[in-house]
Design a protein that fits this description.
It comes from Apibacter adventoris. InterPro entries: ABC_BtuC-like, ABC_transptr_permease_BtuC. It is found in: Cell membrane. Keywords: Cell membrane, Membrane, Transmembrane, Transmembrane helix, Transport. This protein is mostly helical. It has one domain: ABC transporter involved in vitamin B12 uptake, BtuC, CATH 1.10.3470. Helices cover 77% and strands 0% of the residues. It contains 13 helices and no strands. It has helices at residues 4-26, 36-39, 43-77, 89-102, 116-139, 145-168, 172-182, 191-218, 222-227, 232-254, 260-271, 277-302, 306-330. The chain starts with a helix and ends with a helix.
């Protein structure tokens, strides 16, 4: 199914991911040796390893979720700038989480720790689902790419305004916690929250792979897709379900991380055939993991939030894509 050349590239990226995984476990405020991962009986070092292992797993899940979500949206809308944060999906998830936090939802379950991750995720999923369905409804009536992106920007701004209102009337401690969360962070997830996050990510990958099967027939346009028997309604359901589970759970656990859904799919299309969708989704998964592990390492040394780093890389990437498209159009 895959060429030898593609398999070699995928294996090289996977090898880089493995190396970065171990580097993330070994580096931090207190460096440890690789032998400590397997032989340490020191309680302090065991706590450090456990903490870093949870953090690194969260990084890996984010590296899977955000690029796959961006890839699916871009293929469905046929728009290289479609991405959860740009289309307002991440903002809607953040708004739903804000309602949950500022209106005291987390206080209702303080005695039931295992429910904490689920409450935030269910809130984020609801916000992501509402906006995703709305965007799919609009995509049937609005064909201009620029108009569609503007609508996504307006959704993000509207959600941001509502979040600001909630922040104005919130208590100082709650505001501080939410502000820290909104910067995006891989820190502080418990083992229970990691389990909740992993269930959501794995569940989201199933409809994502089912969507790829339908998207292959969608490459040549709606009319060809109908001739090939592609069920457009089913395709949209798979995409919405996958994006909601992947983006919603990531936003709930780590904050509204931006631009990753553009950076990685764009990179993958540069190194392999864009129309080979099965190859592209695998490249997005492994490249996303490697990129987020690299970002995590930079965060360990600079203490910068993930959204600052992703913006520093993502904004020039988007600018490059826009200028490249303009240049191509001016040639014809």
């Amino acid at each position: 199914m895959f060429s030898k050349k593609f398999v070699i590239r995928l294996l090289l990226i996977a090898l880089v991911c493995i190396i970065l995984f171990f580097i993330n476990l070994l580096t931090g405020y207190e460096n440890i040796s690789i032998l400590d991962l397997f032989t340490s009986q020191n309680e302090t070092k065991n706590l450090i390893i456990s903490y870093r292992f949870n953090k690194t797993l969260a990084v890996i899940f984010a590296g899977i979720s955000l690029p796959v979500s961006g890839f699916l949206l871009q293929e469905l809308f046929k728009n290289p700038l479609a991405e959860p944060s740009i289309l307002g999906i991440s903002s809607a998830s953040a708004l739903a989480v804000a309602f949950s936090v500022f209106l005291g939802g987390t206080q209702l379950i303080i005695s039931f720790q295992w429910l904490t991750g689920w409450l935030l995720i269910l809130s984020a999923l609801l916000g992501a689902w509402i906006v995703s369905v709305f965007l799919i409804f609009l995509s049937q009536r609005i064909k201009e790419v620029s108009t569609f992106i503007i609508i996504g920007f307006l959704i993000s701004s509207f959600c941001g305004s509502l979040i600001s209102i909630l922040q104005i009337y919130s208590q100082s401690e709650t505001l501080k916690q939410y502000t820290f969360w909104s910067f995006g962070s891989f820190e502080g997830l418990s083992g229970i929250q990691i389990w909740v996050y992993s269930i959501c990510v794995i569940s989201g990958l199933f409809p994502a792979f089912l969507a790829v099967k339908e998207l292959i027939g969608f490459l040549l346009g709606n009319e060809y897709a109908k001739v090939l028997g592609v069920n457009m309604h089913r395709l949209k359901v798979w995409v919405v379900l996958a994006v909601c589970l992947l983006t919603g759970s990531t936003t709930a656990m780590l904050g509204p991380i931006v631009f990753i859904g553009i950076i990685i799919p764009h990179f993958c299309r540069q190194i392999w055939n864009p129309s080979a969708l099965w190859a592209q989704i695998l490249l997005n998964i492994f490249s996303g993991i490697g990129f987020m592990l690299f970002i995590s390492l930079i965060m360990s040394y600079t203490l910068l939030p993930v959204n600052i780093l992703s913006s520093l890389i993502g904004i020039p990437t988007i600018l490059f894509m826009i200028l490249k498209t303009r240049f191509k159009n001016s040639m014809y």
